[in-house]
Design goal:
Order of helices and strands of chain B: HHHEEEHHEEEEEE
Largest interface: A-B, 34 and 27 residues
Strand order of the largest sheet of chain A: 1-2
Shape of chain A: globular
Distance between the termini of chain A: 44 Å
Strand content of chain B: 15-25%
Distance between the termini of chain B: 69 Å
Bound molecules: protoporphyrin IX containing FE, FE2/S2 (inorganic) cluster
Number of strands of chain A: 2
Order of helices and strands of chain A: HHEHHHHHHHEHHHHHHH
Helix content of chain A: 55-70%
Structural class of chain A: mainly alpha
Shape of chain B: elongated
Number of helices of chain A: 16
Radius of gyration of chain A: 24 Å
Number of strands of chain B: 9
Largest sheet of chain A: 2 strands, antiparallel
Strand content of chain A: under 5%
Oligomer: heterodimer
Number of helices of chain B: 5
Structural class of chain B: alpha+beta
Radius of gyration of chain B: 26 Å
């Protein structure tokens, strides 16, 4: 919120510095003292977790790049070199590989949180759109990263995905060969993917700054979805939410570390430990788990061009969600119908993920088609119509009232018990 | 209306436009090299021709060679395979085009137009599924050859017949036939 600054320089030097570069003031106003709704729950801690994930990927990535060789003849061996010879190389690589999965886990929680509490609604449309852009950049970054170890899945995943561009009428082949730098995925492709895989996380970093800037203009949404009315409704970010975020991060790290030390390869595909062979396609090409729902959508459509367009539309539709939802009420807590459809949608997405890992034949194919159709029905029909027909439950007057009411109910229950 | 709006373009307008046009042309001429550097380079283009000795291939056998980073299938077909491919009505094919770079672009997908030689024994084609680029199965003896006895792409289930024409599945085009010819009785030049 563009409010008066509450920063008071502690000493002469701080004052001198503040008059020249008000950086500590900016940090104070936007982090320590930033007024945050008092009722945020643990689903709101994933923004912090995501920031942690991005920093982790960048740090481990820079270290990997010190030992990795981006050359079709050497890349596979250089990753094995990292695993066997480089001191703690196995650890750094597993943090990076598992980290990509954890990053997506966190981003999906974060996005579904937004869908539940209506965080995309006015005045937070730009904030939401920046989020979708970050997600899109993450998908591209992770896709290119997965190509770098130059295993069979790397190579054939890259082949299938870059071939999606060949459906563009007239110029498709030209564009695909331009992306490859040759007539197939090869050394030139690997080198440019490495260069871009290094660049894109920093672009994500830039968009994250815009995302947080937009957040600080409108302020946080919150579980009851009503706007902050006065000072009573908020608490300063530090220490209240720094502590809450830290606790949540520690829990998240327990899972993260469990994967790294006990099951680092379960999220990947064993075929990626076979070096890329341009003459042999593995029996089942599957993307990493976090892209499976989109893979299911791609294969559900019987036409090549159609499949690509519908898969693109599945992400594009997220951009217009703020205008598809016609309800004035933000939080699903007060929307009895939307709440149910929300869970159906979530199950539908998980189902798409499962179907993406199966062969598109028989019942699986039928199911992928139904789930793909429902994905779009949810956004294009359910969302707009619900807003018009649903009768929301009464909404509390303020955040503080809502918090106190909850407390009263809890207290009276305890009294009744005693 | 004020006098300003109707007056003739001034010298300042001219300079403004000319500078803008100059800057735009300059930016474009720098942008193009940056875009073009990503296109296939001289080494990729240099690999554009290969010669393959096929004297050891018996009827019913195939080999796979690498050309421009892609697999090329060379198959010496059996009489049965040739007959199966010739019997098909071209109008019933999903893709009626020969996709043969040795012929004109509108040639129809008859078996004659797909095979390399007059006896129709030799089939030379790029072994890249026209759906999303996997290598179809069917080159080795034990491979699944699909419902039409030719090649089968396991990635998303495309079936190709004994002339490499798409018959069923998500792929829309027949397997591509590269520029190829017999330079003598034993050697095929591709590219
Ligand atoms: C948004 C952040 C990032 C994501 C989501 C990401 C994702 C990935 C993924 C999925 C892999 C494949 C892991 C494997 O299976 O081995 C990978 C590999 C790699 N990444 Fe990243 N990455 C990110 C940031 C970075 C950065 C900033 C750098 C360099 C400064 C980097 C350098 C590398 C290198 C050298 C490899 C190849 C070594 C390997 O395969 O472990 N990454 N990345
Ligand atoms: S790549 Fe062959 S069917 Fe999809």
């Amino acid at each position: 919120m563009s409010k008066e600054s509450t920063y008071i320089p502690r000493n002469g030097f701080a004052k001198w510095f503040d008059q020249r570069l008000p950086l500590p003031r900016m940090l104070h106003d936007n982090i320590s003292a930033f007024p945050t709704p008092r009722n945020l729950n643990y689903w709101y801690t994933f923004g912090g977790i995501l920031t942690f994930c991005l920093v982790t990927q960048i740090l481990t990535g820079i270290v990997l790049a010190m030992h990795y060789t981006a050359d079709a003849g050497l890349a596979f061996a250089s990753v094995e070199h990292i695993m066997r010879n480089v001191n703690y190389g196995w650890l750094i690589r597993y943090i990076h590989a598992v980290g990509a999965s954890m990053f997506f886990l966190a981003v999906y929680v974060h996005m579904f949180r937004g869908l539940y509490y209506g965080s995309y609604k006015a005045p937070r449309e730009i904030l939401w759109i920046l989020g979708v852009i970050i997600y899109l950049l993450m998908v591209i970054t992770a896709f290119m990263g997965y190509v770098l170890p130059w295993g069979q899945m790397s190579f054939w995943g890259a082949t299938v995905i870059t071939n999606l561009f060949s459906v563009i009428p007239v110029v498709g082949t030209t564009i695909t060969e331009w992306l490859w730098g040759g007539f197939a995925v090869d050394n030139a492709t690997l080198k440019r993917f490495f260069s871009l895989h290094y660049l894109m996380p920093f672009m994500i970093f830039g968009v994250v700054i815009l995302h947080i800037w937009a957040l600080h203009v409108t302020g946080n949404n919150n579980p009851v979805g009503i706007s902050v009315k006065d000072k009573q409704d908020t608490v300063p970010f530090a220490p209240y939410y720094t502590v809450k975020d830290a606790l949540s991060l520690v829990c998240f790290l327990i899972l993260f570390v469990w994967f790294i030390f006990f099951n680092p390869n379960i999220l990947g595909h064993t075929d990626n430990y076979i070096m890329a062979d341009p003459l042999v396609t593995p029996a089942h090409i599957v993307p990493e788990w976090y892209l499976l729902p989109f893979y299911a959508i791609l294969r559900a459509i019987p036409s090549k061009l159609g499949g690509v367009l519908v898969m693109g539309a599945a992400i594009a539709v997220l951009f217009i969600v703020p205008w598809l939802d016609t309800s004035k009420v933000r939080s699903a807590t007060f929307r009895p119908l939307y709440k149910q459809f929300y869970w159906i949608f979530l199950v539908n997405c998980v189902a798409l993920g499962y179907l993406g890992s199966q062969n598109p034949e028989g019942l699986f194919l039928v199911a992928s088609r139904i789930c793909t159709a429902y994905y779009f029905i949810h956004f294009l029909i359910v969302m707009p119509v619900l807003g018009l027909v649903e009768k929301p439950r009464p909404i509390p007057e303020s955040i503080t009232k809502a918090v106190l009411e909850k407390l009263e109910i809890k207290n009276s229950k305890e009294e009744a018990k005693a | 209306m004020s006098k300003k709006d109707t007056k003739e373009p001034s010298r300042r307008d001219f300079i403004f436009l000319a500078t803008g046009a100059f800057a735009a042309a300059g930016a474009a001429s720098v942008a193009w090299p940056i875009v073009d550097q990503m296109n296939p380079d001289a080494t990729a283009l240099a690999l554009s021709k290969i010669e393959v000795d096929v004297s050891q291939i018996e009827r019913g056998q195939s080999i796979t060679v690498k050309w421009r980073g892609k697999p090329v299938f060379i198959r010496r077909r059996t009489d049965e395979e040739i007959q199966m491919a010739s019997r098909v009505d071209v109008n019933s094919l999903p893709d009626g085009n020969a996709r043969n770079n040795n012929l004109t672009a509108d040639s129809s997908a008859t078996d004659e137009n797909r095979a390399l030689d007059d006896d129709k024994e030799w089939l030379v084609m790029v072994g890249v599924c026209t759906h999303l680029g996997c290598v179809p199965k069917g080159q080795s003896l034990g491979d699944a050859k699909g419902d039409y006895g030719g090649w089968y792409c396991p990635c998303h289930g495309s079936h190709y017949d004994t002339a490499g024409r798409i018959r069923k599945g998500p792929a829309a085009k027949n397997l591509d036939i590269p520029v190829a010819e017999f330079v003598n009785d034993n050697v095929i030049r591709i590219g």
